[in-house]
Amino acid sequence: MRVLAVGAHPDDLEILCAGTLARYRRDGHQIIMAHACNGNCGHFIIPPDELAAIRAKEAEAAAALLDAEVLTLEGVGDGELVADDPAQRRAMVELIRRARPDVIITHTPDDYMPDHVATSQLVFFASFFASTPNYKTGTAPHHEAVPPIFYMDTLAGANFLPEEYVDITDTLEIKLKMLECHQSQLVWLREHDGIDMKEFVEVTARFRGLQCGVRYAEGFRRLRTWPRATTARLLP
Length: 236
Ligand SMILES: [Zn+2]
Fold this sequence. Notes:
The protein has 8 helices and 7 strands; from the N terminus they run E-H-H-E-H-E-H-E-H-E-E-H-H-H-E. With 236 residues, the protein is an alpha/beta fold. Strand 2 (30-35), helix 3 (48-64) and strand 3 (69-72) form a beta-alpha-beta unit. It has a 7-stranded mixed sheet, sandwiched between helices.
């Protein structure tokens, strides 16, 4: 399968679903990691353009650990994502057409952060119209299917009750290694906000593991509208 994960910012996938992406990869699937915004507001001291360049490199380094391809909407800063903006919709459709996913993972539509919510809405829109030939974008041909969507956990699992779980006991280590690639965020959050992101992620994974009887897990919900349903188990 081709698995497309779309986060709002360059470190969201590492925090919320990288253990599952690593399981997919181990099973021989192709991973595409996308972020909608360039992460240019994720710091108080490093200027936006410089930070966006740093974060693009961090995302590439993390993705390389899974041999994953990285896609992004070009030139969208943090806080600039608007779900009903026609240009951003078209850009997301083109991104999905390039990724040709069999399954998509993205933020839940009631996430805490406006960019996360807008990403979820854009992916919902774009994953439908990617298969509509008369909806014109760039060069990528229209997609053959309207792929299933899984919603990944929220930060600290707040306001999110998973319906499905993935055992990431064996992939927590690589998830944490991927997270470590985002040094601009880890150092800043520790020094400025007193948050240890590695501990944060481990505790959340342990809590989800507790719920489903394994050491570490990630939790997901599923978009249930037609024609996204299937009888197959698509998560690892
Ligand atoms: Zn984010």
